[in-house]
Design a protein that fits this description.
The protein is α+β, with helices and mostly antiparallel strands. The chain has one domain (2-52). It is built from two helices and four strands. It has helices spanning 37-42, 46-52; strands at residues 2-3, 10-11, 21-25, 32-36. Strands 1-2 form a two-stranded antiparallel ribbon. Strands 3-4 form a two-stranded antiparallel sheet. Strand 1 (2-3) and strand 2 (10-11) form a beta hairpin. The longest helix is centred in the last third of the chain and has 7 residues, at 46-52. The two termini are 20 Å apart. The structure holds zinc ion (ZN). Zinc ion is lined by residues 4, 6-7, 9, 35-36, 38-39.
Length: 54
């Protein structure tokens, strides 16, 4: 099960690789970070989201 990169909340995965949340990529990194819907609402821009991810 995927976990939110910001709040560590578990994110329910749906079939066909769709998750209830979003996936962000750090510039210059191949790593993907999963962010839950709640955090996505808290930090509406990609820049803000990336700042929250360590
Ligand atoms: Zn979250």
């Amino acid at each position: 099960m995927a976990k939110c990169s910001i709040c560590s909340e578990k994110i329910a995965e749906l079939f066909l690789e769709k998750i209830k949340g979003t996936i962000v990529k750090k510039p210059g990194s191949q790593k993907h970070y999963v962010v839950c819907f709640a955090c996505q609402k808290k930090f509406p821009t990609k820049e803000e989201l990336l700042q929250q991810i360590k």
